[in-house]
Amino acid sequence: MLIVKKFGGTSVADKERIFNVAKRCIRDYQNGNDVVVVLSAMGKYTDELIAKAKEINPNPSKREMDMLFTIGEQMSVSLMAMAMDALGVRAISLNAFQVAMHTTSNYSNARLKKIDTERIRRELDDRKIVIVTGFQGINKYNDYTTLGRGGSDTTAVALAAALHADACEIYTDVDGVYTADPRLVPTARKLNAITYDEMLDLATLGAGVLHNRSVEMAKKYGVPLVVRSSLNESEGTVVKEVVKKMERMLISGVALDKDADRISVIGIKDAPGSAFKLFNTLAKKNINVDIIIQSVGREGTKDISFTVAHDNLKEAIELLEEYQEVLGFERVDYNCEVAKLSIVGAGMMSNPGVAAKMFECLYNENVNINMIATSEIRITVLVNSEDAVRAMNAVHDAFGLAEA
Amino acid sequence: MLIVKKFGGTSVADKERIFNVAKRCIRDYQNGNDVVVVLSAMGKYTDELIAKAKEINPNPSKREMDMLFTIGEQMSVSLMAMAMDALGVRAISLNAFQVAMHTTSNYSNARLKKIDTERIRRELDDRKIVIVTGFQGINKYNDYTTLGRGGSDTTAVALAAALHADACEIYTDVDGVYTADPRLVPTARKLNAITYDEMLDLATLGAGVLHNRSVEMAKKYGVPLVVRSSLNESEGTVVKEVVKKMERMLISGVALDKDADRISVIGIKDAPGSAFKLFNTLAKKNINVDIIIQSVGREGTKDISFTVAHDNLKEAIELLEEYQEVLGFERVDYNCEVAKLSIVGAGMMSNPGVAAKMFECLYNENVNINMIATSEIRITVLVNSEDAVRAMNAVHDAFGLAEA
């Protein structure tokens, strides 16, 4: 078996943790597997580098920031190789240049294009554990790039795809994907398996332990993912294309996103293009909007409501007020005391009663639904913050997620 | 003009110093020159990296140490590029991969083989200041190597040679090469110019501000070197092939090396090979010996004396005692209260009276000479420690170095 194992920054934050990771990798190696390890920068090291840079230049160029950032993973991988060596196992560290990890040219947010596997294969054939820097790549100018958020996960999945690995294990501080956040839903249960699409929706909803870029790539190349804990030996959650019927439930998880504020634009002209103009104004300022509903207002007007992340609320309101005349609406209104509650499940595609069941459950709990949005495999409702956790638990239980 | 400027770790140890260096480089750039900057790791950063490594593995592989070390210079160069950018000047940082700085394959002590200049030329043509990592290279395996002691100086000289630079300026914490260490000889005077050979001898004698590897390379490729202070605007010392007669003195400098202990092997058999066996035994343990004299002993024996660095004394004595029977000598004797005093000067080649003048001066000062060694352009004597500084000042004055 060829196994790619990815460990995040907290897993390599100090000497003890580095040795824990080393031992875990060595066990697979000594069982006869080929092992490729992908590492992030140690603990808060990236934050330290940002602080160093900002001290010199409050607005450093992305090219030079990437040049600076990439030293973080290079430190992790060389120290890991030394740790494995201290444990008597041959290991070698490789950075983005040495692997040849080709990316697009945009700094700070590059996308992987092609990974050369020759050097890694050679080192594996030589029976070494190969330790690769996550998060970083090189572009056509032969400059360092970084992959942006979730970058090391993406490196691991891409390496697994390029090497046709038998498994790609992503180690985190939780022991898998849960039916809901266990801190909010005491009966939440760890899932043994979940589909790529379900994982993608959970990731997008902020409930995911994986960044959606890495899940998208795993789906695209059919890389078998496992999300496991770096702290214990629990089996983790397998993420794959199709989850066998027996273990598949109607829905896989319930996610709650408290970072959502509702904005309502009241009395906008009911004319073609008014919604376009409204959202175009916001998009130009990079303000992402989520759930949108439109309702009929009075006298040839309509009301449009949508949600934004809390960080964008102030700017969005100011922007709308600035453009009030151009957009032609009566007034703007907002509510911060709301949360998005979602259920996700590939099973709902073939079960039309799922939405009704969710709404019934919320009605029984006396939870008011402010807005609704649906996709093929998820249903999201906007509820009042004070109801959110209670609603989440009710829905979780109504769909029998605690029992499995 | 194309100018290569090299700054050591103390010159880039903090934000203020980084900006000082940046401004200094920008001045040359704004005067219309092409500027290439070579940097070492910041302050004590390399020591911090060694500590991190030793914590993980007391005996780390050299390959992985080099992988770890190279992040130090990468940090310096990216921060410097950000500083220049903050000052409104276009700059770009490049590491050993990006330049393509080819070295021999031996880790921790590689030698530069070939430097590609294409990327640097392109960036210079684009009117950028190019900031290059010193000390590091890549070998035929595409792995990082480091150049060992004096590595960043060597990088700067090699780059200057490859780019046919008009000047290679080495910035240090002293403002040039002196006729003697000013802390010991109050009348010591800064030299405006010195030959490569003189500089080499001074470097070897521990009085140099440049590592002899970089001087050797400068000599080989005829790179015009300047040693200058990073702290002030003083002109510094030019190191070149031939120093014009007018400014050339009989001797250029007086050097004192206190790190020398004398060992005497008394009553060794006066037979062929006995000296060879003696020094071969020491060489096998990597103990370097310096000044050697041999004198006739009693009854078919001889005495051999030599100097070693103080760190090697204990091991050398133990080794000699261990091999006493094999080497066949009577006893071993040593003296730590000695120092090596040297005069260096290309002028002495054509002036046979120099040695006599030095000895006369020491005689007048009542300084006993224990041992003597000479080369074409230097004379070294071993004196008692208590006489050393007095002797040094006397010689310095006798040769008129204070006046120039």
Automatic annotation (TrEMBL), chains A, B:
Pathway: Amino-acid biosynthesis; L-methionine biosynthesis via de novo pathway; L-homoserine from L-aspartate: step 1/3; Amino-acid biosynthesis; L-threonine biosynthesis; L-threonine from L-aspartate: step 1/5; Amino-acid biosynthesis; L-lysine biosynthesis via DAP pathway; (S)-tetrahydrodipicolinate from L-aspartate: step 1/4. InterPro entries: AceGlu_kinase-like_sf, ACT-like_dom_sf, ACT_Aspartokinase, ACT_dom, AKii-LysC-BS, Asp/Glu/Uridylate_kinase, Asp_kin_monofn, Asp_kinase. Keywords: Amino-acid biosynthesis, ATP-binding, Diaminopimelate biosynthesis, Kinase, Lysine biosynthesis, Nucleotide-binding, Repeat, Transferase. GO terms for cellular component: cytosol. Pfam families: AA_kinase, ACT_9. Its EC number is 2.7.2.4. GO terms for molecular function: aspartate kinase activity; ATP binding. PROSITE patterns: ACT, ASPARTOKINASE. ATP binds at K6, F7, G8, G9, T172, D173, Y178, R183. Transmembrane segments: none annotated. CDD domains: AAK_AKii-LysC-BS, ACT_AK-LysC-DapG-like_2, ACT_AKii-LysC-BS-like_1. It is an enzyme of class 2 (transferase). Coiled coil: none annotated. It catalyses: L-aspartate + ATP = 4-phospho-L-aspartate + ADP. GO terms for biological process: diaminopimelate biosynthetic process; homoserine biosynthetic process; lysine biosynthetic process via diaminopimelate; threonine biosynthetic process. Residues 263-334, 343-404 form the ACT domain. It comes from the Bacteria. Substrate binds at T46, E73. Catalyzes the phosphorylation of the beta-carboxyl group of aspartic acid with ATP to yield 4-phospho-L-aspartate, which is involved in the branched biosynthetic pathway leading to the biosynthesis of amino acids threonine, isoleucine and methionine. Belongs to the aspartokinase family. Tetramer consisting of 2 isoforms Alpha (catalytic and regulation) and of a homodimer of 2 isoforms Beta (regulation). NCBIfam families: asp_kin_monofn, asp_kinases, PRK06635.1-2, PRK06635.1-4. This is Aspartokinase. It comes from Oliverpabstia intestinalis.
